[in-house]
Amino acid sequence: MDREEKVLDTAIDALISRCQDLKTSIASFILKLEVEGENVKWPSVLDSFALISGQISNLMKVLRNEKTPSLRNRVLLPLTLCPDRDEELAKLTDNRVQAFNHEMVPDYLRTKPEPEVEAKDQQLILRATQITPDAGQKQITSINKIVNNILEIVKSAKEDWESDSLQKASAAQSSNIGDTHTLIAAVSLGKGLKDVVSPKPAIANAAQQPPQIPTAQVPRSGPGKAPSAIKTNIKSASSTIPYSR
Fold this sequence. Notes:
By secondary structure, this protein is an all-alpha fold.
């Protein structure tokens, strides 16, 4: 009995170590996503995924090892439940579980899904067993056709996007970013514009006398006659003929 307990303790320590490494990798990856956001580089994301995948594989190797006792044959029973806050438990779980009470135990020590989930799972299994092989093959063929069409659409869109990117990269630049920013700042904020002082229009003086119109002098005439402003020139008829008989 002591030997089995030692083997179990060794296996549990190995599992705890692997889980701790996996937990650290996941926490660092989440922190990277939160800090860098949309600026995260894709090769860095792939490296993080590869590291997490490798650690999961190591954890599964420990579980499948012949020296590891079958944990399914072990039953974990809570000895005491306390509604108060447990500082040691909160420290071990990074404040995710602060108390080992009646509310937390059914969720964390559950070995089977909830009854509602289990009932839905049984319904899906029953529906799957009722499908004939021919109908199942037709559904598989149909879903494969849909997936292939979606892949073709994605590949075509990718090729178009790459072609557009190459054309934009090879095209000559027809604008200047600095000039564009200067123009936007001038239009929206008035930056760089100079004030032009326009001359003030002269204010007309209301008391100014209107211009006088010159009048022609009229010669005096005799009494009883109206003055005439028309000057006439009467010549004799003989003076108009340049020759005489």
